Amino acid sequence: MPLTKTDLIAAVAAHTGSTSKDVASVLSGIEDVVVANVAKGEKVVITGFLTFDRAQRAARTGRNPQTGEAIKIKASKSPKVSAGASFKKIVKGQAPAPKLAKAR
Predict the structure, then answer these.
(1) How many angstroms separate the Cα of 97 from the Cα of each of 9, 29, 37, 76, 89?
(2) Considering the domain boundaries, does residue 26 fall inside one?
(3) Residues 47 and 11 reside in one and the same domain
């Protein structure tokens, strides 16, 4: 079962001893700053954890899967998220995961 935003807020609050309201406010602020900067074309790096960037997709020709007709696909921009080295090592089991406090 995935960890929802509400679950994440509760877990971080329990782990740090902060209130859920404070954690929700900080998380919302992080989201706003990351989205605004990536929208401007800037890269946001949280060293060892995640990198947020904007990918450019060139215009290209595609095919309609039902008819096989060639269609023009416009150039576009999309968000790109990459895991950092420390995060990758923990997921691969090459480093221990952090110990967490139990959520209440």
Answers:
(1) 19, 26, 29, 37, 9
(2) yes
(3) no
Each residue's pLDDT tens digit, 39-71: 999 999 999 999 999 999 999 999 999 999 999
Residue 19 lies in a domain: yes
74: left (phi over 0), alpha (psi -120 to 50) or beta: beta
* Amino acid in the structure at residue 56: Q
Which tokens sit at 81? 């998220």
Token pair of 55, please? 């990918």
Tokens representing 35 are: 């989205």
Predicted local confidence at residue 103, as pLDDT: 60
Residues 25 and 60 occupy one common structural domain = no
Is residue 102 in some structural domain?
Answer: no
